[in-house]
Amino acid sequence: MESDTSVSQGQRRPWIVGVSGASGTPFAASVLRGLLAAGRSVDLVVSRASRLTLLDETGIAFRDGHWREDLRNWLARGADGRPHTFAVTDEALDRVRHWPAGDLAAGPSSGSYPAEGMLIVPASTACVAGVALGLSKDLLQRAASVTLKERRKLVVAVRETPLSGQTLKQMVALDEAGAVVLPASPAFYAGATHIQDLVDFVAGRVLDAAGVEHGLYRRWEGELGGGGRRGAAD
Questions:
Q1: In angstroms, rounded to a whole number, what is the distance separating the alpha carbons of residues 99 and 95?
Q2: Nearest CA to 49 among 106, 130, 109, 115?
């Protein structure tokens, strides 16, 4: 497992992961597993709306008072809904800090709080609008605004279709502000044979944009037919 750069330098510098209310909580779980597998620290912000989505998509009720237990169950669950698909260790959970979405005095609300950057996955159109307009109505939006003003990496994994003209304009505004706008669009050249492969491709592209190493999908190597050969082998 790759060592956490923040630990090696004597200061914790987490990746802030914001989960908004868009459908796509398996994308967030895969990104979180990828960060933890790479030895990175994580500050987690789960919006109020995303808790309803998580409950609907997984049956898991994410509670502030029991966040560690709920997070373990969420991360252990596969994209196909099967529990206990992934092992989640106490050591990995020890590197996660959870902040309630309504806590505007939380660490990530300040630019002086050390952080590598922020990943919003999935990002709803309401979240896109709030960040583009700088509303800071909750900790997720505030942390994103801080990430932009501090010139840190912000990756916004938009999960919506179709997109209105207003949302497209807001996505352009985020791009111009320095964010990476990353639609949650899986590719098929990696030879996906399972829904988890499609989820992991999107999560892997989020981690690519953040500069975090991972092995979530087969990369393009300039040779046609690689994905098909993988599918046949599986």
A1: 13
A2: 130
**Which residues are CB-neighbours of 34 under 8 A, at least 6 positions away?**
203, 204, 207, 212, 214, 216
pLDDT on residue 223:
80
Whole-angstrom distance, CA of residue 46 vs CA of residue 19: 5
Chain-centre distance of CA 201, in angstroms?
12
Q: The tokens of 81 are what?
A: 């809904």
For every residue of 195-220, DSSP letters joined together read: HHHHHHHHHHHHHHHHT----SSPPP
Q: Which residues contact 122 (CB under 8 A, 6 or more apart)?
A: 19, 20, 22, 23, 24, 25, 27, 28, 157, 158, 159, 184
Contact criterion met (CB below 8 Å) for 210 and 121:
no
CB 132 within 8 A of CB 29: no
Give the three-state DSSP class for 89.
coil
- What is the reported pTM? 0.92
Residue 12 one-letter amino acid:
R
Residues in the chain, overall count: 234
| pLDDT, tens digit, 9 for 90 and up, residues 88-119 | 999 999 999 999 999 999 999 999 999 999 99
C-alpha–C-alpha distance, residues 102 and 138, integer Å: 6
Pairing of strands 15-19, 117-123: parallel
Query: CB neighbours (10 Å) of residue 94?
Result: 11
Terminal Cα-to-Cα distance of the chain (whole angstroms): 26
3-class secondary structure, 84 = coil
User: Which residues make beta-bridge pairs with 19?
Assistant: 46
205: Cα within 13 Å, side-chain hemisphere: 21
